[in-house]
Amino acid sequence: xxxxxxxxxxxxxxxxxxxxxxxxxxxxxxxxxxxxxxxxxxxxxxxxxxxxxxxxxxxxxxxxxxxxxxxxxxxxxxxxxxxxxxxxxxxxxxxxxxxxxxxxxx
Length: 106
Description:
Blueprint lengths: L24 E10 L8 E9 L2 E7 L3 H11 L7 E5 L2 E6 L2 H5 L5
Parallel strand pairs: 1-4
Antiparallel strand pairs: 1-2, 2-3, 4-5
């Protein structure tokens, strides 16, 4: 669905110990989209991640990472730490997917 111009995130995680790398959910933040360029529509944030071979995507005008965590929680992904990257750089991190899922605008 989304095409990333960046290499896979798992190759870029230098700050995560290799022993714990599989326990951390790595989220890629993609450039926002302008949904309606002619009507001056809102920018839409996009986020995606791959957990145990399944790719998850989320779009939101106010917190794609929070929405993605809600999708992960609904799909019974175990709680654990997460890292969010934009263009290969760490921009956000947290200790709990489920705690972040409860934040933001529903």
